[in-house]
Amino acid sequence: MPESPPKQLLFDFFAGKSTAPQKQWIADWLKESDNRALYYQYLNEWESQHPQYHVDVQPALDRFRAAMQQIETAPEPSPFVAVSSGESWNSRTVWFWAASILLALSIGGYLSRNLIRYETYRTAYGETKSFQLSDGTRVALNANSTLRVPRWGFGQRGREVKLDGEAEFKVTHLANHQRFVVRTSSDFAVEVLGTEFVLYARDQRRKVVLSQGKVKVTYQAGKQVLMKPGDWVSLGESGQLQRKKTEQPATFSSWKQHSFTFDQTSLSEISQLLYDNFGLTVHITDSTLAQRQISGVFAAEKPNELIEDLADFLHLKVTQTPEGLAIQPYTNQSDN
To answer: Where does the FecR protein domain start and stop, copy by copy (predicted)?
Structure first.
């Protein structure tokens, strides 16, 4: 394992003053994932001592829209602006490219800032991960999901993470009673104080199942609902919040054991699950079949295992198409 480079050497590297051997030393050192947290810590310290220009995305977008609106409403300008290459660019083109470059730089700066500010945990299709955060909170991340955790100040200045996908949280209660907040990409958040729950957050659908403790769900610009153990709250595309009770909240995280538990779950919902977790597109050709509900536990590590079990259980015909899988009921004996 390469020896850690001195702090000043890293500062010189950030300033663009490193020699080729020093750059190689740093590159070899960063191959060890455990060293990256210290690297970002020093980078944050160096940037705070050497402030640089940071573009604010929203004002840049506003200026871009205003410029385009001006162009659309202004009288047609002179037909061209002379350039050294001999080509002719009209002012509309010049404005468009200038605004596009500004927008690209703004977005690039915003993405780089997020890369530095957050440590990101990701899972691929069909993959699950379990890990522990610095405050002791344990997280199980379902397939095709992303969790972002602040690199600095987490547990000191607050505990707020961002989830896109599905995860089970077992939140550690701290002596100072510090809250733990999970936010999603839309106006939906779960605030907890030492508890265990599953949060599903994909597209416009949100679902929280509480196993232990107490949580407060905030949605639609300030609306709130308090949950007790066994509560199951879901928010669909319609914006209507539904609240149910379940005697077995642990079944909602059965995916940790590569098992799928369905309780009056429609085949249409299961096809969405196959897309979310495995990236598999399933077309159900019969609308009545799509609404058929299923209850039971199905063990499956791969999508084809779950599909085969469902096909046997419901007596379905499954066909491979260029767009994915087509599912339909058997119509006669010749289909067998």
So the answer is: 120-216
Q: How far apart are CA 191 and CA 183, in angstroms?
A: 9
Tokens of 31: 């191959």
Which residues have CB under 8 Å from 54's CB, separation 6+? 109, 113
Q: Measured between alpha carbons, how far is 112 from 89 in angstroms, rounded to an integer?
A: 33
Q: What is the pLDDT of residues 315-336, one digit of tens each?
A: 888 888 888 889 888 775 555 5
Q: Do residues 113 and 127 share a domain?
A: no
Q: Judge if 187 and 130 occupy the same domain.
A: yes
> Do the beta carbons of residue 232 and residue 251 sit within 8 Å?
no
- Residue 310: CATH number of its domain: 3.55.50.30
Look up the pTM and report it: 0.64
- Measured CA to CA, the distance from residue 330 to residue 181 in angstroms comes to 48
Residue where a domain stops, chosen among 68, 97, 117 = 117
Residue 6 is given by DSSP the state P
Provide DSSP, 166-232.
EEEEEPPPPTT---EEEE-SSSEEEEESS-EEEEEEETTEEEEEEEES-EEEEETTTEEEEE-TTEE
What per-residue confidence (pLDDT) applies to 85? 44
Tokens coding 156:
């000191």
CA dist., res. 26 & res. 10, Å (int): 8
Assess whether 85 and 44 both reside in one domain: no
Q: What is the DSSP string of 105-169?
A: HHHHHHHHHHHHHEEEEE--TT--EEEE-TTS-EEEE-SS-EEEEESSSBTTTBEEEEEEEEEEE
DSSP label at residue 302? S
Distance of CA 226 to the CA centre of its chain: 25
